[in-house]
Amino acid sequence: MSEKWYWAVESTDGTVRIGLTEKTQEELGEVTFVDLPKIGTILAEGDALTSIEATKAVLDFDTPFAGTIVAVNTAALATPATLNKTSQADNWLVDLKK
């Protein structure tokens, strides 16, 4: 897995949206399952963020930033293949407040 598996976009309020890069999507193949933390979960940098099962791999990802989970991509929980889309509006995992 590439070292930078995620993209991150920070808002002016310190909220960071984290999602899968296209390179990560290619390496994983079609995502079949995703486990996301609950809203309100407090994470330190390096804590487990998500577990993703796909056709090519099953991987656990650590959070790149410390903060509190303020939103999760419920569409990805219901339909994990949503994470294979190239649009950042679709393939995000969580919003984390630094």
UniProtKB/TrEMBL annotation:
<dbReference type="InterPro" id="IPR011053">
    <property type="entry name" value="Single_hybrid_motif"/>
</dbReference>
<dbReference type="InterPro" id="IPR000089">
    <property type="entry name" value="Biotin_lipoyl"/>
</dbReference>
<dbReference type="InterPro" id="IPR003016">
    <property type="entry name" value="2-oxoA_DH_lipoyl-BS"/>
</dbReference>
<dbReference type="Pfam" id="PF01597">
    <property type="entry name" value="GCV_H"/>
</dbReference>
<protein>
    <submittedName>
        <fullName>Glycine cleavage system H protein</fullName>
    </submittedName>
</protein>
<dbReference type="InterPro" id="IPR002930">
    <property type="entry name" value="GCV_H"/>
</dbReference>
<comment type="similarity">
    <text>Belongs to the GcvH family.</text>
</comment>
<keyword id="KW-0450">Lipoyl</keyword>
<dbReference type="InterPro" id="IPR033753">
    <property type="entry name" value="GCV_H/Fam206"/>
</dbReference>
<feature type="domain" description="Lipoyl-binding">
    <location>
        <begin position="15"/>
        <end position="97"/>
    </location>
</feature>
